Every structure is written in structure tokens, then in C-alpha cells.
Automatic annotation (TrEMBL):
Ranges of residues in domain DUF1254: 85-215
Protein name, UniProt field: DUF1254 domain-containing protein
InterPro entries recorded: DUF1214 (IPR010621), DUF1214_C_sf (IPR037049), DUF1254 (IPR010679), DUF1254_sf (IPR037050)
Keywords attached to this entry: Signal
Keyword Repeat part of the UniProt annotation: no
Listed Pfam families: DUF1214, DUF1254
This protein's record includes keyword Flavoprotein: no
Residue ranges of every copy of the DUF1214 domain listed in the record: 354-463
Amino acid sequence: MKKALTKICMVLLASTVLITNVWTTSAYAKNKDEETTSITVSNDEVAKIAQEAYIYGVALVEMERSKNQMTHPQYDGDTEWATLGEFYHVRNFADPSTTRLRAPNIDVLYSGAWVNLKDQPVVVYVPDMGDRYYSIQVNDMYSNISGYIGTRATGNKEGVYAIVGPEWDGEVLDNVDGVIRVNTNYTWLFPRTFAKDTEDLAVVYELQDKYRIAPLDKYENKGMKAFKKTYPQKDKGMQLEEDPYGKIEYFEVLNDILKDIGMPDSESALMTRFDSIGVGPNSEFNVGTLSPELKTIFTNVAVQTEQLITYVLNGPRETVDGWGGSKDVGLFGDNYFLRTLCARGGIGGNTAEEAYYPTSYFDSNNERYYGSNDYTLTFPAGSIPPVNAFWSLTIYDSETQCLVENPINKYAIRDVDNDLKYNEDGSLTLYIQSEAPEGLEGNWLPSPKDKDFHIIFRAYMPGQEWFTGEYSLPGVQKVK
């Protein structure tokens, strides 16, 4: 198999959700006139620790920014965002006009809820899903995935699950079907519900509307009866108008988040290190009280670290037959740089065992995809992608990361499509081109004319063959 170099962001953007709207709340600023940053190390050490803190904090800042926006609906009737403690629901398949999300898929409809766990746990109700795939990803504020509710993790039966934060030391009721513990005081619940086509949407809406959240002290018994009311939480969150990246104010934002978020005991030594430069959870970082020399150090670190992140995101990465994919998304451990890259690519990526997303910017000859060329992707007989749910192939404009406009409004090919045609020998050929292949329209993924594009393969509940090396995607061939 040929190996090539391509962009690292292909691994990241494929698996994630990125908020692209502008934050419209007031600029982040605090009255710190009388507060002084305490720094106990040399200037050289300040620069070193500041870069560590910057990289450590990007995912936290991105999650906080997203929480702030998603819990403030932008207009009356905005069902895609909801108040803290309530579910919001996306009601339509993504199309080229979808700009709130980067690299959206059309396999599932998204829902979501941001929840405060400081005071007490919450319980989440899910209906009986029949044989429909669904998952509810439970994220902490570091963008790590704490656990799943759903087809793979818990099955499709009706159930109630408790989500517990780090400060809760009370008991969780016995009459729940499972408990997921989160390391932080807030969590993002991120459901995905499979939708086959537009005729299926009404059924999906009904299921989405049955997802429920309630505080533990409002939960009395299992079943839908305990969740007839909604319980919105009041929390203004951090008021962020501007992108803080690459600016000295980034460290003020990070400092406030670290004081509020809650964290694993295993990172106490690291927090002490951050405290030594005034950024940690037991400190108060105040740009206004820094000496000119320290202001220069922190400013330079912010600018240079941001340049490093941008360089790596857009730099080369090794791929196999034009495909690249990360198997570590959502389970970052202490790999803070990978966590940063994934957060900047977009929050919300599944773990590989839930859904694996190989992505390709280059064909099997290491040439960039371009709309004036025709391409084929053939799965040999006996080598159809192994999945326990379903798979899809989606095409994106490489410049905008959005879906590609085409005359038949088709943005993906899925193994659940009724019009897929297999070859006589059992193999399957997909056609990626601007014009339809005669008689094989079901196998056609329309590409844009005169534009670069890239493709993302999504394997939901992938078979173990993906991870043992027994299976990999074949390269995409340019038709001569």
C-alpha cells in the first residue's frame, strides 16, 4: 500500500463538530484593578510553563465558548440551541447551507444539552429506540468522552441514566439503568439519532422529543412520567465576544475556567505548576498588573503557540492509500497537544469504537481531488467495510468544509441506500465525479466542478478488523 503525506486536519475535521457563528455577547473582561498576579519562577520558566498552559487549555476554552453560544438561542423559535439543562434538536438533514457545523454528516440528526453538575447529578431518559441506531455522547469540559448511552454501549431499550459530576458525594438512586461519572462541573450531552431519509424524519422527531433531562431531586420513578416537565438551569456562563487565541487575554480566560471547571486529582501537580505563573486554579491572572517584561513574555507565547498549532494543523501527515484517521479522538489522556488539535478542528468527535472516520484529500496517486476529474472507489468482493451499524461516504468543499452543491441534492452514499448496485462478482464501485454514470446513479457521489474537495468515510460501530490491521480502505482511483 502506498503511503503519502497529507494534512493533519483531515483526521480532525472528519470526526468533529465546529461552531462557526460569531459570538455576539459582550467582550470578555473582568474588573481586576486590585488583583495582582503572583509569579514565583524565573522569566525563562514563565515562558515554558505558559506554553504548556496554553496548549493544555485550548480544549477547555473551546468547550466553554461553545457552551456559551449553544445555551443562548439566537432568535425566537431557535430549536437548534437551548437553555442550559435542556435538549436542543437539529430537525433537518445538513445541506450546503449548513454553516453552524463544519463537515456535517447526513447520517444522523444531532441533538444536544449542556448541563451544570455542580449542585447535583442529572438523570437522562431515553425512549425505546426499536432497531434504530442512536448514541448519546457524554463529554467533559476537556472534550474527553466520559461514556456513552446508546445502541453500542447500553442497547436500545427504554432507560434512565444518571450523570454525576466530581463534587457529588451523595448517593445515586438505585432505580437507574446506569451511571456515568464526569470529571468536570459541566457536561455536554450530544445525541445522534439515525435517519434514513426525509420520509423517516417524522419518526426521528418523535424520538428526539422524548429525550429528557431532570435534576436528581426531581426524579421520582422510572419512565416517562418523571420527565414531563423541563428544568432549565440559570447560568450566564463566560461572556466571550472575541476569539481569545493568540492574545495575552487568553490566559485570563483560561485562569477563570480552571477555577470553575473541576479536574481530576491526577492533575494536581500540573495545576501547581500553572499556579506558579498565576494561571492555575488557585491563582488570579491579571494582565493589568503584569510588568512590561512579563506582558511581552505572555504575549509572545500566545502568538507563537498559536502559530505552532496552525502550522501543525495545516502540515503534512502520513496516510495509507490516501486515507488518514485517528483512533484516539475523545480519549486523550495526557496527550494535550492532540486534544488541542482536535478541539481546534472541532469539538464533538466520537471515539473510534463508536464511529471511525477515515478521511482523504488525495487519491491513490497522491494527487489532490479536483472536480474536473472522475474517480472510483471499489470495495472488492468480501471486503465491504465491516460495520455493526452502517457506513457512509460524504464529499466536502475543501475550502469551506461544507457539503457540496449539486443538481440532485445528493451529498453522501450510504450502505442503507436502496439504489446501490453491486457488481456481478459481489464487489461495489462508487463513482465520485461531476456527471452521473449512466445506469449507476445510485452509486454516484456528485463532485463539484472546478473545485478542490475531500471525502470522509464514516464507519458506525466499526468491526474490530479496522483496529487489528485486518481491514483498511482501498485507495480512490482517478479514471484516465
